[in-house]
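Could someone model zinc ion with this protein?
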Amino acid sequence: MSAKETISFRVINTDLAKATSDALVIAVAKSADGPVILDTPLSPATLTSLKASLSALGVTGAADQIVRLPGLPDTGAKILVLAGVGTVKGATVSEEALRRLAGATTRQLAGTNHVVFAVPTTAVTHVAALAEGAALGAYQYASMHTNTAAKQAPVSKVTIYSTLAKDPELAAALERASVVAKAVNATRTLVNEPPSKLFPATFADAARELSKGLPVKVTVFDEKKLLKDGWGGIMGVGQGSSRPPRMVKVEYKSERAVASLALVGKGITFDSGGISIKPGAGMVTMKCDMAGAAAVLNTVLAVAALGLPVNVTGWLCIAENMPSGTAIRPSDVLTILGGKTVEVLNTDAEGRLVMADGLVAASAEFPDVIIDVATLTGAQVVALGHRTAGVMGDEGVSAALKAAADRAGELVWPMPLPEELRPSLDSPVADMANIGERMGGMMTAAVFLQEFIGKGKDGETIPWAHLDIAGPAFNEGAPYGYTPKQGTGMAVRTLVSYVEDVVARSA
Ligand code: BES
Ligand code: MN
Ligand code: ZN
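Reply:
Sure, complex below.
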């Protein structure tokens, strides 16, 4: 199903003239005094003549700008590429700026095989950021275009020039970069698949397939098991579809585990809205509604591949939300796993119903923390825009997720869980209704989810945070930096960084 991602990395610290390649990339920053070429091992004479030409070439140093020039005699590359990093804040270029520069470059240099980066790196994390960005930017979905002549093969070989080439920590950092990029790219592919190909049963198959060779256990609950065991949220949402729901549990256990984490993902393979059907324009992107589950799956796989000392269980709550004669109706009542009842007033508020089952199941195993990821509300996009995810829940967990996101280069912003929203979810016939106060609807949805977080072994409510990724999971606009059109792989990098932080804190 997914294209094999094969991009190789090498770090060198030799004369660039000896490094034969297709393209040599140097960085140009934007400044008040015009474009500035960042530290690169070209000869002073070359740099002087390049500097003199920058303005005439239209080089501004703006992020995402790529300008190609003929190769230079003092390098072994066929072309020279001037890549913009934008305005540099602080003494060194940030990891995220390097990631974006590398991604913007590999993305726009598709059709070029071997790319050498000769841009400033003052820490191993800088080299890793370049590698990660390059792998993310080289991503291509194996689309169904029939005109294959127009297809350009992705960059497959990346060499990074760095004085840190012999650093003992480099190998592990590069390995991490490639594991993380693979996880993000696999998430993108799952999101990009048309819903006729990726439906609950095939999503479960993909989970099994992607897990091959990794120390994880995949358990798939089919509709018979879900019905028998009382997963009323997932079964209710899925009952209108000819393609029955699945619950996929993905477990990774380490003998050295310092913590146990549960990740719960929304896996609506297509959200038509159900009987409360969406208008056409709102429905076209709804193959992305399983992005949370795809991110959770690939996070568990990345954590397993990195062998981190934690136990992580992913719960993928997978169903297709369709209208039909068997679909749930507005005013129907569902019984969520564990017994709570929910009156479904709007069948388009289906994500919280499948997540409720997942959160109850996750709680029953008493993890140290629960994090859920969901393309849950249009209100998230209204509040925070297309690129920033909302995080809600326990303050400590939310703050830790925000910090992890900052480090990973993903945009996440904390939002409150106002108590006064809870009564808006009261129902005259059940424990709760599935819709409440419309204003601040991202928070109303989170307040609904909160009701399904159980208590830990200590009798306290399990620490929990919820990521609403409705906007950032899917890029409807033009590609930028390392972010392609369509599926973005949002949340994988934040979650992997969060797990690493949990490990680091316990050391
Ligand atoms: N999957 C949607 C949310 C969504 C919207 C994701 C836009 C990505 C982009 C969700 O199931 C939904 O339909 N939510 C409703 C909830 C409402 C009925 C309370 C919404 O946001 O309109
Ligand atoms: Mn919906
Ligand atoms: Zn949805």
